[in-house]
User: Fold these one by one.
Assistant:
Number 1:
Amino acid sequence: MTRVLKAGILGATGTVGQRFILLLSQHPYFTIHALGASPRSAGKTYAKATKWKMAQRIPAEVQDMVVKTCEPTGEFLECDVVFSGLDADVAGEIEMAFLKADLGLFSNAKNYRTHEEVPLIVPMANPSHFDLLAHQRSKHSLSKGFLVTNANCSTSGMVVPLKALQDAFGPLSKIMVTTMQAVSGAGYPGVSSLDIMDNVVPFIGGEEEKMEWETLKILGSVNKDLNGFDLLQSTKVSATCNRVPVIDGHTECVSIEFERKPAPSVEEVIRVMEEYRTEAQALGCHSAPEQAIIVSREDDRPQPRLDRENGNGYSVTVGRVRPCNILDIKFTLLVHNTILGAAGSGVLLAELAQKKGLIV
Ligand SMILES: NC(=O)C1=CN([C@@H]2O[C@H](COP(=O)(O)OP(=O)(O)OC[C@H]3O[C@@H](n4cnc5c(N)ncnc54)[C@H](OP(=O)(O)O)[C@@H]3O)[C@@H](O)[C@H]2O)C=CC1
Ligand SMILES: N[C@@H](CC(=O)OP(=O)(O)O)C(=O)O
């Protein structure tokens, strides 16, 4: 019988924090034990502190919980695991303080993704990167604490089919991606309605650089001494990112070239995506979807409104797989940006860590 773990949430009042609350409130492995946000929210009940934007009601068990400041004291010190949905402007210092207090942390923020001792893991792409944690613990003299980051929301969707293809057919030499990203990706209140209604904004600060770099770490590997990462060297990634008037769900048009010649056919690519199985499924993780990648055969799918809840938001939906006249293959994918692209990844990573015996 699995021990129920006490979970803390940093940034609990934000867009990602609200999604953590929903995902953890009925979860069989976790109980919500501590909520943290800015000094503006601290001291208020959760219901008063948050501007709740989820379609489901605030879960009863958190309504009257008092929000705390984000310090590794009191109830946070009693937590077995802490999830961070903190604003990146403050995440760096706060997350480091929690790590130094020997707490186990899953972060959504960008601050430590590029750090050489911090795994950057998309649960259905590179769970093998947990292998670096022993080194991280010994380097920072931690007995049970750790810091694991999950990826940028657009990166999180793209790397799942790319990992399936890389495993089956070897390295990709070129990846070109154009995104259409939902407004919930910018948090709350996010993009002004006057900017986004009847419009497309062809710029999201820092997003293209993150997609281009994070992909190389995630599709790379832990080195043979298990003390660093070998980034992909021969793969080139070019990203173009746009904000569109969709509430949830990032759509991405991806073209890829394989090193292997001749390149696999459309039928082989579809088969590999449909047959892709991950460690999260093999270990029976509670939130792992039945299918990591759902391939849609219709001409006009995936669509955010119709496909973002596939696999409860944990599946990536791929459609329009076809030959590319410039590279080899192109397709369109959809990822739920606050589930697989954010809070859901954190929760599934914690489930994986528990199954692997890393939460002590
Ligand atoms: N939205 C998305 O799809 C994705 C977001 N992310 C990342 O997740 C993180 C959260 O994003 P999101 O939920 O969209 O952002 P929001 O702006 O909606 O929420 C930010 C949270 O940070 C808290 N916060 C702000 N300032 C402080 C402070 N000084 N001390 C402590 N807490 C503070 C806020 O508390 P308060 O309410 O009290 O101000 C709030 O809980 C960011 O790092 C973001 O880049 C990652 C992937 C996808
Ligand atoms: N920038 C993403 C969301 C986000 O916060 O990404 P990151 O965690 O990489 O900073 C979006 O706007 O859709």
Note: Residues 88, 108, 110, 152-153, 181, 185-186, 204, 207, 210, 337 surround aspartyl phosphate (ligand 2) (CB under 6 Å).
Number 2:
Amino acid sequence: MGSTEDLDHPQTILQYNSGFLVSKVMFTACELGVFDLLLESGEPLSSDAIAARLGTSTTGMERLLDACVGLKLLAVELTQGGALYRNTEVSNIYLTKSSPKSQYHIMMYYSNTVYLCWHYLADAVRSGEEMLKFMAGQNSVWSICGRDVLAAFDLSSFTQIYDLGGGGGALARECVSLYPNSTVTIYDLPKVVQVAKEQFVPPEEHRITFHEGDFFNDPIPEAELYILSKILHDWDDEKCRQLLAKVHKACKPGRCELLKSRETLTYR
Ligand SMILES: C[S@@+](CC[C@H](N)C(=O)[O-])C[C@H]1O[C@@H](n2cnc3c(N)ncnc32)[C@H](O)[C@@H]1O
């Protein structure tokens, strides 16, 4: 990024400028069932056949298919009868609904929900009130899967837990409910801790405490278990290394970190 080539021709800036087009082409082909149809058909199909089977316009479909070819999500074979399209291997594995490794459902969530929310990013940045909605949003997922995440490993031997960047505290609440002998300290930025206290964690919940701090610039106190849930994806590799090194230093031998990113759960 910022290379001398970029100064002559801003390749990076142009890629960022149109990045959303790439996502939307992939989402649309998934949503319309292009990859599923090509998997089921077992043979390459023309754009007319695909359009007819999926009930779309022929020109629109042809353009979408060609865009997918450009993105290497589809391959095209030029025959005397016209162009025939088929899935690439990667599309068969990740973009079809029936594949065990299918990413279809998360993509539909991104396309129909996350994509729309990001339209209002500038408003969200302008307005501090959005923080409350963001925290509630972050919390809501834990009412569905918090217990499963926390039960994936037996954490009952840990009584003193720090949830770094613990936000609104929904995971902390699940944790003390599942492991009644534990206490969880939500470590987060002062303004977030204030909102968590006022809005999300009932004062009678004495097993949850708070620590106002910046995990990059302030000390991280000693604890038996550190939870970093949906934290690392926010930072570049250097920042993640910095944070993990700090947690590692605070962690005494035999103590642990539970890392939950969007896709993975790690216990070490
Ligand atoms: C994506 S949210 C995840 C919230 C929660 N862990 C969860 O799983 O729902 C990231 C959290 O990290 C907190 N955070 C960001 N930078 C931080 C910092 N430097 N020190 C402490 N917390 C921070 C944010 O305030 C926010 O609550």
Note: The longest helix spans residues 11-32.
